[in-house]
Amino acid sequence: MLILAKSMTEVRTAIWQVVSLIPAGKVASYRQIAALAGLPQQARMVGRILSKLPKDTAIPWHRVVNATGGISNPNASHQIERLAEEGLTPINGRINLKHHRWQP
DNA sequence: TGTTTGACGGACA
DNA sequence: CTGTCCGCCAAAC
């Protein structure tokens, strides 16, 4: 009998660590982060955790986009600005995942 | 305690 | 392409 239950603190930490691995100039989807953090089918959890990040965090949350390459963050303009600094420019509101997706 | 919501995503019409 | 439906689950209400 496996005990899979993880505290929110552990889940949060796992997600933070995975997001921190995304290199500049690359992006990952919420689903991708969830899977790498050991939380399959729980992309929403990733979004929830990121939404609670402190404003001054060093975690590159801006490199996380939705499955279509679009920006889900309510404050999209800020995120797009950060991405632009890394050479990522959304076309028609979305990043080309075909070319910019982070592949560990 | 029951219901709704949300930085999601895939299947389907 | 748009819109609907369902699974997911902590937090807010």
Overall description:
The structure is a single chain. The protein is mainly alpha-helical and about 100 residues long. The chain is about 40% helix and about 5% strand. The protein is built from 5 helices and 2 strands, in the order H-E-H-H-E-H-H. Helix 2 (about 30-35) crosses helix 3 (about 45-50). The longest helix is centred in the first third of the chain and has 13 residues, at about 10-20. The protein is globular. The mean pLDDT is about 95. The protein binds a DNA duplex (13 and 13 nucleotides) through helix 2, helix 3 and strand 2.
Compute the number of helices: 5
How many DSSP-defined strands? 2
Strand order of the largest sheet: 1-2
Poorly predicted residue ranges: none
Task: Categorize the overall geometry.
Answer: globular
β-sheet strand percentage:
under 5%
**Major sheet details:** 2 strands, parallel
Fraction in helix:
40-55%
Which class best fits the helix and strand makeup?
mainly alpha
- N-C termini distance: 31 Å
Order of helices and strands: HEHHEHH
Q: Overall pLDDT, averaged?
A: 94
Radius of gyration: 14 Å
Summarize the structure.
The protein is mainly alpha-helical and 104 residues long. It has helices spanning 8-20, 30-36, 43-51, 76-84, 97-100; strands at 28-29, 64-65.
